[in-house]
Design a protein that fits this description.
- The chain is an alpha+beta fold and about 210 residues long.
- It has one domain (about 20-105, about 115-185): 3-Layer(aba) Sandwich (NADH Oxidase).
- Helix content is about 40%, strand content about 15%.
- The protein contains eight helices and four strands.
- It has helices at about 1-10, 25-35, 55-75, 80-85, 90-95, 120-140, 150-160, 185; strands spanning about 45-50, 100-105, 140-145, 165-175.
- A four-stranded antiparallel sheet has the order 1-2-4-3, with helices on both faces.
- It binds flavin mononucleotide.
- Flavin mononucleotide binds next to β3.
- Keywords: Flavoprotein, FMN, Oxidoreductase.
- It comes from Nocardioides piscis.
- InterPro entries: BluB, Nitroreductase, Nitroreductase-like, Nitroreductase/BluB.
Length: about 210
């Protein structure tokens, strides 16, 4: 049990620590199998994983992300702009491997058990798979960095998802020298982790003053 909590605590979003060494194929298969055994609404298993290693595709995605970074940077002023300028938001090329995760709402047929009232339950299932992948990769000593600075249409085209498949994440997966103890956003002063007590409620939601 301690091993599980240890992995949960060691998991980090990784950007600067990728060594560029190839990922061991057996380890990658175990990590993907962990993702594929995630819980899913109605057992729909509505995920797809595209493994991207082509240097051209990695470079094309990095260029797109750089443009989106500029879009976000343009919305900031003063201290926020200065702090953001110091933060790296991706290790797309350095990791050498992108795992693009898609959500296919048609998976599981027209009567997905448990999704009739909450359409987002399909998307939640995909995110469970991503978290399984992330924790399994951490246990294998690999780094994972989630990149969301992209337009869905661009990524759909880049990896050839059909129109019904929604890109949910680009995950940079790769060998790392180490995993940082402190999240980058905390280290660079963007935001800090809040105490559990701030988000915990008894019986009914209590607004915070
Ligand atoms: C949905 C989602 C999208 C994210 N997008 C990015 C991103 O585009 N770039 C980035 O550097 N980190 C991204 N992250 C990582 C978060 O910044 C990171 O999880 C958070 O700062 C806490 O750090 P930790 O994961 O190391 O604990 C994303 C995380 C999630 C869950």
């Amino acid at each position: 049990m301690n091993d599980l909590y240890d992995v949960i605590n060691r998991r980090r979003d990784t950007r600067s620590e990728f060594t560029g060494q190839p990922v061991d194929q057996d380890a990658l298969e175990r990590v993907l199998a962990a993702a594929h055994c995630a819980p899913s609404v109605g057992m729909s298993q509505p995920w797809d994983f595209v493994l991207v290693r082509s240097p051209q595709t990695l470079a094309a995605f990095r260029a797109h992300v750089a443009r989106e970074r500029e879009v976000f940077a343009g919305s900031l002023e003063g201290e926020r702009a200065e702090t953001f300028a110091r933060i790296k938001v991706e290790g797309i090329v350095e990791s050498g491997l992108g795992v693009v995760v898609g959500y296919d709402p048609s998976r599981g047929g027209s009567h997905v058990l448990g999704r009739h009232a909450i359409a987002d339950a399909g998307l939640y299932s995909v995110v469970c798979a991503i978290q399984n992948l992330w924790l399994a990769a951490t246990a294998e000593g690999l780094g994972v960095g989630w990149v969301s600075f992209y337009r869905e249409e661009f990524l759909r085209e880049l990896v050839g998802f059909p129109a019904r498949v929604r890109p949910v994440a680009w995950l940079c997966v790769g060998a790392v020298g180490h995993l940082p103890e402190v999240p980058d956003l905390e280290r660079f002063g963007w935001r800090h982790r809040s105490p559990l007590a701030e988000v915990l409620h008894e019986e009914r939601y209590q607004p915070r003053v």
